[in-house]
Amino acid sequence: xxxxxxxxxxxxxxxxxxxxxxxxxxxxxxxxxxxxxxxxxxxxxxxxxxxxxxxxxxxxxxxxxxxxxxxxxxxxxxxxxxxxxxxxxxxxxxxxxxxxxxxxxxxxxxxxxxxxxxxxxxxxxxxxxxxxxxxxxxxxxxxxxxxxxxxxxxxxxxxxxxxxxxxxxxxxxxxxxxxxxxxxxxxxxxxxxxxxxxxxxxxxxxxxxxxxxxxxxxxxxxxxxxxxxxxxxxxxxxxxxxxxx
Length: 245
Ligand SMILES: C[S@@+](CC[C@H](N)C(=O)[O-])C[C@H]1O[C@@H](n2cnc3c(N)ncnc32)[C@H](O)[C@@H]1O
What we know:
The chain is of the alpha/beta class. The protein is built from 10 helices and 7 strands. The structure holds S-adenosylmethionine.
């Protein structure tokens, strides 16, 4: 099954990683494919200090340290930092990635502590409130970059009038936080706090999500596959949104 996860033409950096290792760390679909695509718009340079917000079990933090030579703070609410630290040591990045338990609205950092903040498949849990961009950008240096990859729709739920049944059956009300790329562009741009450098729906997003889920073994696997197959790519994908402060 994991052979199907080898996509070197689309994701050359990720294709160096063991797919079985990634699937064992799985908390959501294809985090490294999302991050590799997102990072094309983040201008990461060696030595930069990067916050990986909602870092989960830590695959994305390992990737950031190894592929871009950045110093990473891996901040997450549900995952024990001791468990993440073990992973970072095993992956040979212990000196460059620090794991912290943190709630996204009460972050234990100084203002302007980071050159970049990335959030992969996590921002939808805490970042849709009007006030959140002002909060999170406090932790960016002037000129710093914010980049998120988040489940997204081709049409707003508000315009559809309801959460479509095949999506509701899988994730319930949580899909209310799944927006279009244009929604994110406006939501950030209107604040004047950042310049949005890119807000796009990932063209491969639905197919990648299905390919990844079919190869995996998470408890919700069958429900997610049913949602994606019913969707046929008509609505569901991921939005990749980047901005500079
Ligand atoms: C779907 S998982 C994705 C994890 C990882 N980024 C990945 O792609 O594998 C979502 C993550 O968001 C984190 N999260 C959710 N709500 C949070 C909050 N309020 N503050 C910090 N992290 C949060 C969870 O702890 C979880 O690890």
